[in-house]
Amino acid sequence: xxxxxxxxxxxxxxxxxxxxxxxxxxxxxxxxxxxxxxxxxxxxx
Length: 45
Fold this sequence. Notes:
Layout: E1 2-6, H1 16-24, E2 27-31, H2 38-43
Parallel strand pairs: 1-2
């Protein structure tokens, strides 16, 4: 599992992504300065 989180997410605690990846044996990527739904914001650029 790949968990992508934004460091500035105000909807979900940014620490949850890395923890979820750790619990599932997945990988975590934190986008510095990114908010909630950071994948959609990047894709729309």
